Known about the structure:
Layout: E1 4-8, H1 9-13, H2 27-45, E2 50-55, E3 67-69, E4 72-76, H3 83-92
Parallel strand pairs: 1-2, 2-4
Antiparallel strand pairs: 3-4
Amino acid sequence: MRTKLILDGYNVVHRLPAVSISRQSALETVRAKLVAFIRDWRKKTGFKGEIVIVFDGRRDVAPPMSQHMRGIKILFSEYPETADDLIVSMLKK
C-alpha cells in the first residue's frame, strides 16, 4: 500500500510563515504558494507517497473538480461539508 499524506490546506496555511496569508492575499495565490512549499518539501525529504491537499469549499461557489498541481492532488469540500469532514470520509474508505 502506498503512503498517502492528506493535509487540511487552510489549517496548514495558517501555521506556515512561508505561506502566510494576509487580507490582500487572493486565495488562489495562497493555495499555489502552499503547493509550491509542499512540492519543495517533497524534493528535500524524498517523500514518494501521494499528497492530497483538501480545502474548505465556499457557500457561494460550486467546488471545482479535483485538480492536480505539480503532482499534488487538490480537493475542495462541497459546502456545508468542511475539509475536515472530507478528510474523515477519505480515511474511512
